[in-house]
Amino acid sequence: MTRAVKSLSLIAASVVVFALAGMVLAVGWFSPSADEVARIPSPQGELEAVLIEVNGGATTSFAYEVFVLPRGTKQVSHRVAYLYGAARNSNAYGATLRWVSSSELEVEFEKAKLAQVEQPVTDVSGRTVRVALRSGVTDLTAPSGGMFYNLRGRQ
């Protein structure tokens, strides 16, 4: 092999390595974040409803996942509802969790691009919980922007 061909091969290999490294870093830097933005105890205190805000980046809207967990549980599992593009008012993203009773949870929001209850009736730690979505509820006290952004104090 000539010296020129060796140099071109080395340059091409370097370009491929740097491109792959850049792709790996980009995936790590731009992966969606998932942050707990609300945790509401049930009236009797044995369960908690948890709202997770998923931020996919500037070209997507926020997604919201709702979980019902035994009190004090940190690991979220048992997703009962999902919302995409949900808003509490014309400037505030998100949803509000409200226990109607010790066995009924409502997820309130003004509007959403997608809203679905995945488990309308669920059993958590021997307790049966009914989950419902309630659209058309405007929360004028909710601050503008995403819920996690507001929890951090708009840093």
Protein traits:
155 residues; alpha+beta; 2 domains; 5-stranded antiparallel beta sheet; 4-stranded mixed beta sheet; 2 helices
Q: Please outline the major beta sheet.
A: 5 strands, antiparallel
Q: Total helix count?
A: 2
Oligomer: single chain
Distance between the termini: 58 Å
Give the SSE order as H and E letters: HEEEEEEEEEEEH
Helix content: 10-25%
Given the helix and strand composition, which structural class is it?
Answer: alpha+beta
The overall pLDDT average reads 86
The total strand number stands at: 11
Strand content: 35-45%
Give the number of domains: 2
Tell me the Rg in angstroms. Answer: 22 Å
Broad shape: globular
Provide structural commentary.
By secondary structure, the chain is of the alpha+beta class. It contains two helices and eleven strands. A five-stranded antiparallel β-sheet has the order 1-2-3-4-9. A hairpin with a 6-residue loop joins strand 2 and strand 3 (62-70). It is globular. The N and C termini lie far apart (58 Å). The model is unreliable at 13-28 (pLDDT under 50).
